[in-house]
């Protein structure tokens, strides 16, 4: 994929060139690795916020939607459905690849979370 040219501060460029040389890798590889890590950390932080919102919303969700699947985005309930797959499809159609928490409403609000990643498949949170 070809993107517009990206302007990098000179001091960062010099450090990147030095690190690439020391690591015996290319600048492109280092940049791609750094951006991938940055985006993954950003996704994790967003999901952490959505989990906190889910926990805050849980008493009302348990009262009104027990056993259903819910989608939490930007700390708000954006959709719910008894069918997880139907909910997932609507969420992906509406939000694309933006991280949205999809969770089943169970009696206990805290559960293990799995983040799907392109490189490893799953990461336990």
Q: Can you put this structure into words, describing what you see?
A:
The chain is of the alpha+beta class and 125 residues long. 51% of the residues lie in helices and 18% in strands. The protein is built from three helices and five strands; from the N terminus they run H-H-E-E-H-E-E-E. A three-stranded antiparallel β-sheet has the order 2-1-3. Strand 1 (69-73) and strand 2 (76-81) form a beta hairpin. Helix 1 (10-23) packs across helix 2 (27-64). It is elongated, with a radius of gyration of 19 Å. The mean pLDDT is 89.
Give the termini distance in whole angstroms.
Answer: 31 Å
**How many domain units?**
1
Low-confidence segments, given as residue ranges, are none
Q: What is the number of beta strands?
A: 5
Fold blueprint:
Blueprint: H1 10-23, H2 27-64, E1 69-73, E2 76-81, H3 84-95, E3 101-104, E4 114-117, E5 121-124
Antiparallel strand pairs: 1-2, 1-3, 4-5
Helix pairs in contact: 1-2
